[in-house]
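Contributing new records

If you add data, match the layout below exactly. Sequence lines come first and carry their own label; structure lines follow with theirs. Keep one chain per record. Anything else will be rejected by the validation script.
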Amino acid sequence: MFLAVDIGNTQTTLGLIADNETLLRQWRMATLRTDTADSLHARLYGYFHMLGYKLQDINDIAIAGVVPTLTQSWIRLAKEISGTTPLVIDASRDCGIEVALPDPSQAGADRIANAVAAKARYGAPVIVVDFGTATNIDVVDAHGRFRGGVIMPGLQLSAAALFERAAKLSNVPLIAPAHALGNSTETAVQSGIVIGAAVQAEGMVRRIQAELCAEWSQTHDGATMPRCTIVGTGGLSSVVAEATDIFDVIDPDITIRGIRQIWLHRAEKRANRI
């Protein structure tokens, strides 16, 4: 079996994939910056035992991380479990997609994984809106190149800042209200955060699409760019999707799939060198 590890700032997402590429299980655990390889081993053992799997069944591991200290702990754990050095995704190395940025090393590993999986599953051009601690918009242009995108505060981060700074506002559940016009403090906050995030995503995606279309038209004698697929992912994507019709699909597994595809690409390159 293959274990994909996506280390986010707030949550770490794990995906267990069988040899036939079936996603057996995906789950999330809190990202704790104090975790060591030993503490991660204990937590992972507990998850696997609960699900009826064994750590010894893992053959290979790949990691996409935005928390460097934790990435090192996961590397040590991976070596203990599988006996091999895990793949740590790095946009400055070949990930199976052209990274059309001035400095590819600045692209987050999770964003590259999103781009790789989205291009493979939905074609190009494609835009992924990933609702995590930050809301990332990852763009693959019509030529199949990762072009960068947008990074902005996520829903939970915005909500936490609001609740901390506004003494009269209490914590409210992050759900999409029925109307943009809130008629209570709770629905007003929900509108501002959830519908606000939806409107923000709509506006940013439309501006990005317009820029991509203008580029395409200039280089293709005024031709119209192929239709761009809009994909939502991340822990709160299904919540935001209730407040907008901008998404063609909600794909909660796209980052895990991208990590797996990058590992397969690198493994194929290694095999061809033998």
